Every structure is written in C-alpha cells, then in structure tokens.
Amino acid sequence: MTTPATPLTGLHHVTAIASDPARNMSFYRDVLGQRLVKKTVNFDDPGTYHLYYGNQGGEPGSIMTFFPWPNAGGGARSATGGVVVATSYAIPLGSSGVWEDHLRSSGAPVVWQGELKGEKVLETMDRDGLRLLLVETAGVEDQPSWSAPEHPIGEANAIRGFRGVVLAAEQGAGTRRFLVETLGLRPDSVGEADGIDRFRFDSDAVLGDVIDVIDPAATLESGIIMNHAPTSAGAVHHVAFRVPDDTAELLWQSHLSAEGNQVSPVMDRQYFRSIYFREPGGVLFEIATDPPGFGVDEPLDSLGGELKLPPQYEGMRARLEQVLPELPA
Ligand code: ZN
C-alpha cells in the first residue's frame, strides 16, 4: 500500500469538549498564555461557541479548539481503547521549572512529572479535567511564540505549539498499523520497555510531529491517566492532521476511501477544509488544509477580537449573540 505523494505534515489542530466557555478561556488564555485566535460558533450547532487558541498567527500545529457545551458533564473515564489520553504541548528545554511554579500559583494542578521518551514532562489538566502534557522539546525555542500580554511565563518560556498526542489503543486494535500503512507515519521507538509506541510524521515539521500509542492497561502503571469518553467535557473530540492544499486533501480522501475507510465529503470549515474518518480503535481523525488560515476574516493583529460567523449564519447574528454566553474581556 502506498500513501499519497504529499504526506501528512503533522498535527493541524486538536478539538476537545469543555463545559463553561468563560472558564475554558480563562484557563487557555490566562493560565497557559495561549492566544484566542478565533471566536466563532460550532458550524454543526451554531448556538454554541467554537473557540480556537494557538500561537500568534494561529498556525497549524499550535491550534487547540473547544466546543464548550455548558451542560456537558464530565463522563466516566474510559477503561478501553479508542481515546486520546493526553494532548502535549512543546515548551523549550529548561522551562518546566518556571511552568511548574506558574501552574501551582495559578491553581492548576501538577498531576505528574516524569519522562516520556527521554523528554521531561509536566502533566496538568484544564478546568474540565482534560489531560495536558507540557513537554520540554529540543529545537522549539526558535519557533514563533506567543505569550498573552503581561502573562507571567514570558515569551522565552511560552508554549510553542503541540508536541503531539497520546492515543490509547489495545495491541491488535489495528491503530498502530493504520498509522504506518494508511497514514504514512514512521514507527520510531516501537516496542520499547516503557510500553509506549512512538510514531512520527514523515515531514520536517518541528511542532506536532509525533503520535504516541499506549496500551490502555499500561496507563495504569504510568503516570498518565485515561481521559474521559469522547462525548463529555474534558475529552478530546478529534485530532486533525495537516496537508498543504486542496489537491492533497482530495488525494487523501480517495486514498482512504480506496482502503475501505468511511470518509466524509470535504467540509468547508471557513479557516481550513476538512475530511473526517475513524481509525480502527475508534478515535475520530480529520485531515485539514493549511490554507486559508485565521486571517481570512479578520486582521492577524486582532485575531479573536470579535465573534466571527460563517456566511450561512451571518443572518442569525443578533439571535446568536443573545444566546451565546458572555466571555471574559
Ligand atoms: Zn477539527
């Protein structure tokens, strides 16, 4: 089996579920120092927000997005495969001490500290219990950074974007084979004694370039705890990978379909175009185009300033502004 000539170049974004949007914003912006790069609505459910956080330009590989559903309860933690266990952010080497102090003084928990694949890791969670790893990553210090104005962490230590995601999948679920044979990732440190298999995208992207796969049973021994089921607050809803343009997107769509996967039509998400499919373990994956990006409907220097609506909902603006909860200034 061969994958399309244009490989997936890394993580594009990770989308998760939150409960209260204001609390979500105060964590990602005020605690993690991320930039709110877009304030829009869920295109499939316009009465709720879709909030995007990222680096200064909201570049692919840095974007964490949320559907805040105020009534989304925190579900039971899943004990079986097919969930995203954790999302990891890349921080510069030597910065975890500063981050630890900052998290503690912000009232964010430091759940676990240790090493993953030789990299120093600090695990925390957001206000809904979503697991996040801050990973000291070599070579990210030169990546564009963003630290919210007056944020105590400062630009030098700021989060640069994603390191990767950790998926839980039972041995034999087919997830590992799918990553390599269908998505074209390279196995890297597979079968090591730590019980976590690492796969890399075939690209020179510095951010969001790894997927770790852990056996659900092994999560009990490591410091990493299983995430919530993917429909409740504190859970990752889906993980999106990058392609450079629409041509590559269409090639991936035919490739996935030719291999017997159910793939969605191309959906216009205003800031990128997307297709969706599930990996054999059940996690929802997406392939999203790098263009047009977040500057398509507001200037880059004022990203996230106003509620942006796609053309199909512009006529409902007054009503939506009434039902959407107020966000912190
Ligand atoms: Zn998405």
What structural category characterises the helix and strand content? alpha+beta
Q: Give the integer mean of the pLDDT values.
A: 90
Strand order of the largest sheet: 2-3-4-1-13-16-15-14
CATH fold topology? 2,3-Dihydroxybiphenyl 1,2-Dioxygenase, domain 1
Q: Tell me the strand percentage band.
A: 25-35%
Integer-rounded radius of gyration = 19 Å
Q: Give me the CATH architecture, please.
A: Roll
The major sheet is characterized as: 8 strands, mixed
- Any ligands, ions or cofactors bound here, and which? zinc ion
Description:
The protein has 329 residues and is α+β, with helices and mostly antiparallel strands. The chain has a single domain, classed as Roll (2,3-Dihydroxybiphenyl 1,2-Dioxygenase, domain 1). The protein is built from six helices and 16 strands. It has helices at 21-31, 96-105, 154-157, 175-182, 246-258, 317-323, and strands at 11-18, 35-42, 45-54, 63-68, 83-91, 112-116, 119-125, 131-136, 161-168, 186-188, 196-200, 210-214, 236-243, 267-268, 273-278, 284-289. Strands 2-3-4-1-13-16-15-14 form an eight-stranded mixed sheet. β2 and β3 form a beta hairpin. Mean pLDDT is 90; it is low at 220-228. Zinc ion binds at residues 13, 15, 238, 240, 286.
